[in-house]
Amino acid sequence: MSTHLPKIAWIGLGIMGSPMSENLIKAGYQVTGYTLEQEKLDRLAAAGGTAAGSIAEAVREADVVITMVPASPQVEAIAYGADGILENAKSGALLIDMSSITPQTSVDLAKNAKDKGIRVLDAPVSGGEAGAIEAVLSIMVGGERADFDEAKPIFEALGKTIVLCGPHGSGQTVKAANQLIVAVNIQACAEAVVFLEKSGVDLAAALDVLNGGLAGSTVLTRKKDNFLNRDFKPGFRIDLHHKDMGIVTDAARNVGAALPVGAVVAQLVASLRAQGDGGLDHSALLRAVERLSGAQV
Fold first, then answer.
1. Catalytic pick from 175, 223, 224, 243?
2. Is 7 a catalytic residue?
3. pTM for this one?
């Protein structure tokens, strides 16, 4: 194991965090992790990482702290307070938050961390569980160029498309736009699936030919089997996409951008959640279209 590589603390070992941290271990990094579930800590240790008993313990010796948690409240909970990252990480450390949160939360975090001598990048990702496992994530970053350059080798072990989008909060803004496009895309695919099936067409053949033309997309490639098999095991949960649609509609209102179609899809995501489908993959937007089309699902 190379000793010249920065020591990494990883906070949050969920669907995305576990495979991402393991990719860093494979790349030769020393990774100390902390998360709430013991089995996730065991998984990290089995992969060659070190399990910590607290956030403070995980970050104390780290050169780089990476966080991957569900939403703004969790980022604030792990960053602030006596037991949080800012109080326990060493001065000069780099904090990379890869969660998808509000741009304002990222801006505030960078400001508060600066007072402690800690540098911050917001670096949310796109690509879902498959992208995390395969290390082909798209990583959109906000922050200082020098910090981005320093973090680049770490990002390269996690993803393929790595772009500095502007100052603090910019990564989150681009991520919000990403989630808008993905949700509208899944909704369009779901409507097409129901239309095709009700018309008696061979669905697998139809989706193949559609995906070869202008209607083709990464969404259709990644989610085609979910639609065909009605397999909604979560790669990215409706609950999280609901949170993200709230972020993008709120941020768009703040800057005076109209999202007419996005607003409709945000409501469809919310209705799916209200019907108890929040724990399913976002491709389950298909279930909402089926219900609207008269199916009992």
1. 175
2. no
3. 0.94
